[in-house]
Amino acid sequence: xxxxxxxxxxxxxxxxxxxxxxxxxxxxxxxxxxxxxxxxxxxxxxxxxxxxxxxxxxxxxxxxxxxxxxxxxxxxxxxxxxxxxxxxxxxxxxxxxxxxxxxxxxxxxxxxxxxxxxxxxxxxxxxxxxxxxxxxxxxxxxxxxxxxxxxxxxxxxxxxxxxxxxxxxxxxxxxxxxxxxxxxxxxxxxxxxxxxxxxxxxxxxxxxxxxxxxxxxxxxxxxxxxxxxxxxxxxxxxxxxxxxxxxxxxxxxxxxxxxxxxxxxxxxxxxxxxxxxxxxxxxxxxxxxxxxxxxxxxxxxxxxxxxxxxxxxxxxxxxxxxxxxxxxxxxxxxxxxxxxxxxxxxxxxxxxxxxxxxxxxxxxxxxxxxxxxxxxxxxxxxxxxxxxxxxxxxxxxxxxxxxxxxxxxxxxxxxxxxxxxxxxxxxxxxxxxxxxxxxxxxxxxxxxxxxxxxxxxxxxxxxxxxxxxxxxxxxxxxxxxxxxxxxxxxxxxxxxxxxxxxxxxxxxxxxxxxxxxxxxxxxxxxxxxxxxxxxxxxxxxxxxxxxxxxxxxxxxxxxxxxxxxxxxxxxxxxxxxxxxxxxxxxxxxxxxxxxxxxxxxxxxxxxxxxxxxxxxxxxxxxxxxxxxxxxxxxxxxxxxx
Length: 641
Ligand code: IVH
Description:
By secondary structure, this protein is of the alpha+beta class. It has 23 helices and 21 strands. The strands form 5 sheets. Strands 12, 13, 14, 15, 16 and 17 form a 6-stranded antiparallel sheet that branches. The chain has a 5-stranded mixed sheet with strand order 2-11-10-3-9. A 4-stranded antiparallel sheet has the order 5-4-7-8. α11 crosses α12 and α15 (about 480-485) crosses α16. 2-(butylsulfanyl)adenosine binds near residues 88 and 198.
């Protein structure tokens, strides 16, 4: 914990081995806090849910000192006195909660959605900085940050690369991925660390300030961050922020800001919480990191709605934890306003800490005679003249037959949340277009085996798969079609609300703008877009063609939204063997309803094998690949959950 061992490693190792020997002989003497118990032997099938006794809230944040000043002013007004803050580093990791009973660690969990997290006790136990037994036999819950030190991250990514795995984008993702391992041995190998910063129910321990709470937790055996400091006014806070804005790169772990917490716990209680965040604490986020690079090219692409967008292609650079080689330039106005030219050296930052963006051009580094970046006048796909609609900034191609647009539309139509035509991705769509087999979505329903045989590498099996995927999509409930048509402003959620409300496409098509705008959660913008869309003669013709092709136009719900948190959500699952209580098709449907992708054969990509009685080769293969396996009893328990 303190990086100050009291004996040499050799002595420790010897004692550890002796302990292991003794525990093997006298298993009744193994204590839960024995150092041998850090890595449990059992591999889990899934994490249990854990309801937090006290919700784990989030943290309000500000991005400038002016906003921070305002925050402080507001608090002072509320409590009618000067406020002192405990300043802490905002560690870039994941929040965890640790529960101890009579001094022994009994449960550790993730934040989850703040109300319900996941029980990851086995994994947290492998982290040496987390004490298995406290210095006093107290019952207490503490919270803090689990993170991966920069050095461990570099080592892990180097290893991922040599072993052919995908490197993690940043230490935070690496920490998250390492904590959510069903096999604690994997977590154990990842060198995670923690800083504990919150004491739940401090009043039990005669602690009156946040600063004391940290000292108390440190005395109990937790690792706390040494940089916390009490600041009595904005000037002291400013000094703290300046110090760590400069020093952050030299720290062995990542930080993304500073957290200010009212130091006096009685004042904290007086200020209380909103539903989402405590009123007495705030995060000051560092300005986004910047990086310098050179723009080699500006490419223009046509989107589904005809908007033509420029993207800068650049020398790859490291920016706030990821490698960046492309950045959207949004539109021609932005290129002109910032005077971005091909060949320019530019500074990049991440908007909202995620999307790379050009902050400014380093004009001094511009090669002589660099011309302004050309703004296209015609569509890069179909060559038709580009226009600005109304007073839109965006350049648009308004040719409804433009191949790039049609490709995007068809791909969207086939996508998972729309008509869900598996196997119809952008590359296949492009081939279908190039061979003049489809020009709009209705044409998909007239494709024959002979047509598909003309596509690259399409043999009997792939032909049949695609034809049956297209055929199956005819039965979709109509919200998928409504979304798939790509009507402006109509996302998946609006499509479902509309389908449910109007019952079928005909009622939606003939509804007045007012009637649509009256639907709960549907606004006037959507209503106008829908009426405009269905007015077009081309659209009416398209719907007639879809109807004639036997595409279902009725709502056949209730369809549940795609489940995001279930024991199989987002997982690739294989079912094998015989089941006493469940039929295979019913089980498949139920798992799919819970967000699983059910496939037929076990591979490296399989996340879970559900094995009934008399399972054979698939079970053996899954065992060989270390794929987690679930039997019928466990499955039923999970389904009941
Ligand atoms: S206080 C109400 N103190 O930042 C929850 N959080 O952006 C606030 N974090 O969820 C907890 N360092 O995971 C607190 N010194 C610190 C922190 C810290 C990092 C994380 C924490 C929180 C997130 C909010």
